[in-house]
Amino acid sequence: MEAEKKERYRKTLESFVMGHTEDVLKQPREFIHYPFIDPGSVYDGNVWDWDTFWSVYGFLNLADKYAKGGVNESPAGMRERLIEHAKGNIRNFFDHQLEDGYIPMMIEVAGWPEPYLNMKHKEGILMNMHKPFLCSQICLISDYIKDYGWAECFFEGIEKYFACYDKNYYFEDCGLYVWCDDIMIGMDNDPATFGRPKFSTANIYLNSFMCVELLAAERICRRFGRKERAEYYSQKREKLIAAIQSECWDKRDEFFYSVDVDIRTRKFDWFHQGLGVFWKTLPIKIRVWSGFIPMYAKIATKEQAAAMVRHIFDEKTFGSEYGLVTLAKDEKMFDLSVTNNPSNWLGPIWLVANYVVFRGLLNYGYLKEAEIMYERTLTLLGGDLEKTGSLHEYYNPFTGEPVMNGGFINWNILALNMAEELEGKRPMLWFEGAD
């Protein structure tokens, strides 16, 4: 991409995001008691788990520019308001934590007396809980403001949150976490989980991000002077990494897969009395973009990363002129249908996938490849702004055309994080050498 066009697209994107920040900063309503950030577009009034994390990740990267005026005139006090809304995300989730530690994935106002997922949980219907981005968002905010004190009141809740995960979603036999079902799993129709039996999938998305979450929990404990608990979470993380390496890495395909944990010897009468099933999991060999998350989480080896980089830019599988397709093109489920609830992750370009893979490339020293991912991302969003004057939720990987939900802000901001990280700025969530 020509330097002039790159700079124009970058400034256009920055101006658009900063000019539309008010669109996603929401005030308390009904049982949402604290200010919060929603994704924009059709998601007005929804407090989502990983969405709020990535929104904060992008907005805090821009926060100092608001204070200076940025590329346009920004409202006074916007930096402080962003921080308050970011903290509000966390406060809202803990405000609705149940006694057993369960925290819903999403808090919405839709006419009932409390979050829907909490209502079902109280009925005894176990569903998925807050994805592993809670401690990560606390660290993200606290590191930016250089103060963890505001979050110390949540320590007991954090402990209960992990205890709930371990009680309900952890398979001791293989050492991996599983989704309860395919409801609100972030990548709505990921074929590795979508439509499969309950509690059967140890998804590589869930387990990779859980490694980051455990690292964040360790940091929080150390900041609060809880050394024993810090060591506990450190050991849990190392154990989880070992399980991912053992069960999810496929040596033949050189790729990280989600795995089926519903594995056991099915004995009947006198049949199957000999050698039984001795393997702990069975790989679900569907190449989903989440197979690259171990590079973001820095749990892949250098050799594994080198192998996976080839997949990222392979035009027959994941490569696109606009970034990364979310499901390999040669998978039988590859589909670009327009759909919401579930949103379509069967191939369209999603900016969060572009960023996670970009960050993974930088983590392992692939600077040139990361720059290619940034330029393709900028081409996509810059083109959308020029043609439509807006940003969208996801995009066609062959044409770059938006698929649906104009006005979507959320993780689209991450293209600006890419630009600054290529210039040497460290990522917003940073652990090495910071304690």
Strand and helix layout:
Layout: H1 3-19, E1 25-26, E2 36-37, E3 47-48, H2 49-68, H3 78-95, E4 106-107, H4 116-122, H5 134-145, H6 155-168, E5 170-171, E6 176-177, E7 201-202, H7 204-223, H8 227-247, E8 249-250, E9 255-256, E10 259-260, E11 282-283, H9 293-296, H10 302-312, E12 319-320, E13 323-324, H11 351-363, H12 367-388, E14 394-395, E15 402-404, H13 414-422
Antiparallel strand pairs: 1-2, 3-4, 5-6, 7-10, 8-9, 10-11, 12-13, 14-15
Structure description:
- The structure is a single chain.
- The strands form seven sheets. Strands 7-10-11 form a three-stranded antiparallel β-sheet. A two-stranded antiparallel sheet has the order 1-2. Strands 3-4 form a two-stranded antiparallel ribbon.
- The longest helix has 22 residues, at 367-388.
- By secondary structure, it is mostly helical.
- Helix content is 43%, strand content 7%.
- The mean pLDDT is 94.
- β8 and β9 (255-256) form a beta hairpin.
- α1 (3-19) crosses α12.
